[in-house]
TrEMBL record:
Positions that bind FAD: A14, E38, L46, L82, W340, G347, V348, I349
UniProt cross-references to Gene3D superfamilies, sorted A to Z: FAD/NAD(P)-binding domain, NAD(P)-binding Rossmann-like Domain
Enzyme Commission (EC) number: 1.18.1.2
Name by which UniProt lists this protein: ferredoxin--NADP(+) reductase
Residues binding NADP(+): R197, R198, E209, G347
Length: 424
């Protein structure tokens, strides 16, 4: 019987699904000892710090992650950063294979004038802020304006716009960070414009997300019927299933009887942002009507760009165009990559399951003799590491704090709080 040691770096969906795939590939003769290394004191990646808190069903996949973590032959090393606490060279010495599953955490930039003005922020900061990510505990966002513009036509733009345009008391029964609920309750924002540079037929929203918008109880959702009809006529009869489903959902939104709530979420299409302007902070966004020279502007005090992500680079790993350089998940000898760090920021959480399973098959094909490297537990101070049982203590404390408030959990925000809940 061969027992191979595999390190998975990153405790998000791609990392857990890689661990699950290895567990499923085990036989009487082939066993794996899996160590998951995560820079935060908490695992679950985007399921904890990305998924919108008003979408609790999506987060139920965390139960699958916990099953994987407690299936045996699995250790969590939370609060341990690759490149700082341990190097890739050390992992290569200690493990038979190393799997990078660190996602894409850096927001892409538009590269237009005024993008760095105060009041212009990336979804890559706003989303972890409202989800209580420790790195954004001190992030400041000024919501003292009536109009916000969200650039991008994907599900992240939609999450961001919904979070800004919801009646904030709707977030009370969710696990939104307390600091974000408090700030959103003080927010003066009443109009959120989601802006797409192309037409509705090219929007990257998915139809379940579009179909839930008309159900918002305290927000007017506006789409111009003429925009959707023009898109339908542009695409004609030979239309892809997903595009048709999206356009059907958008048509329903555009035909919905007008409501008269305080808060409005409005979609605009075929508008390319060319400049953010303002004296010392964002005061307006200048758009060009896509495909023409005509420009127009929207006065606003906040712009959030949600135009995709890139992977942050880790020393010792090759990157190109925001991804780890790889061939079907193979990076170099004994080094693999899965998830967004491998293929870029696309797909839903479940997409990572088949993606990771494919890469783990290659990993198993490539395995040679078992190495006799050391144990990572011997090089990390025990007082630092959040193990699975420490994490279970954090998890239980957060869930218990939520119970009397009718919330799934109250998230601890700072690293200090998290470590102390974990008992270290
Ligand atoms: P995305 O789906 O790729 O959407 C990015 C959007 O940004 C596109 O509309 C794109 O327009 C636009 N864009 C890119 N560069 C731009 C530029 N320079 N100027 C203006 N617009 C620009 O990415 P995402 O929203 O970050 O989502 C990432 C992945 O996570 C997606 O697969 C998404 O479905 C998934 N996700 C799923 C959920 C859910 O299931 N509820 C929630 C959140 C995220 P073009 O098409 O014109 O390039």
């Amino acid at each position: 019987m061969q027992n191979y040691k595999v390190a998975i770096v990153g405790a998000g969906p791609a990392g857990y699904f890689a661990a699950q795939a290895l567990q499923n590939l085990q036989t009487d003769d082939l066993q794996f000892s899996i160590d998951m290394i995560e820079r935060l004191p908490t695992p679950w990646g985007l399921v904890r710090s990305g998924v919108a808190p008003d979408h609790p069903k999506i987060k139920t996949v965390a139960k699958v992650f916990e099953k994987i973590a407690t299936a045996g032959n699995f250790r969590l090393f939370g609060n341990v950063e690759l490149g700082t606490d341990v190097s890739i060279e050390q992992l290569n010495e200690m493990y038979d294979a190393v799997v990078i599953a660190t996602g894409s955490a850096v927001g892409k930039k538009l590269g237009i004038p005024g993008e760095d003005l105060p009041g212009s922020i990336s979804a890559a900061h706003f989303v972890p802020w409202y989800n209580a990510h420790p790195d954004f505990a001190d992030f400041k966002i000024d919501l003292n304006c009536t109009t916000a513009v969200v650039i991008g036509a994907g599900n992240v733009a939609m999450d961001v716009a919904r979070m800004l345009a919801l009646e904030p008391s709707e977030l009370d029964p969710t696990d939104t960070a307390d600091h974000a609920i408090a700030a959103l309750k003080e927010s003066s924002i009443r109009e959120v414009v989601i802006s797409a540079r192309r037409g509705p037929e090219h929007a990257a929203f998915t139809s379940p997300e579009l179909r839930e918008l008309p159900k918002l109880e305290h927000t007017n959702v506006l789409m111009a019927k003429s925009d959707i009809e023009a898109a339908i006529s542009r695409v004609g009869d030979e239309i892809e299933k997903d595009t048709k489903s999206n356009l059907d959902a958008m048509l329903l939104i555009s035909e919905k009887e007008a409501t008269n709530h305080d808060r409005t979420m409005k979609f605009q299409f075929l508008a390319t942002p060319v400049e953010f302007k303002g004296a010392g902070k964002v005061e307006e966004v200048i758009f060009q009507k896509t495909g023409s020279d005509e420009t127009f502007s929207i006065k606003c005090g906040l712009v959030i760009t949600a135009i995709g992500y890139e992977a942050a680079s880790i020393p010792g790993i090759p990157y190109e165009r925001g991804k780890v350089v790889n061939n079907e998940g193979r990076v170099s000898e004994n080094l693999y990559v899965v998830g967004w760090a491998k293929r870029g920021p696309s797909g839903v959480i479940g997409t990572n399951k088949s993606d990771a399973a494919d890469v783990m098959k290659l990993l198993v094909e490539d395995l040679k003799g078992v190495k006799n490297g050391g144990d990572i537990a011997d090089i990390l101070p025990a007082s630092k590491v959040i193990s699975q049982s420490h994490w279970e203590a954090i998890n239980a404390a957060e869930v218990a704090a939520g119970e009397p408030l009718g919330k799934p959990r109250v998230k601890a925000v700072t690293r200090e709080e998290l470590l102390s809940l974990g008992g270290i």
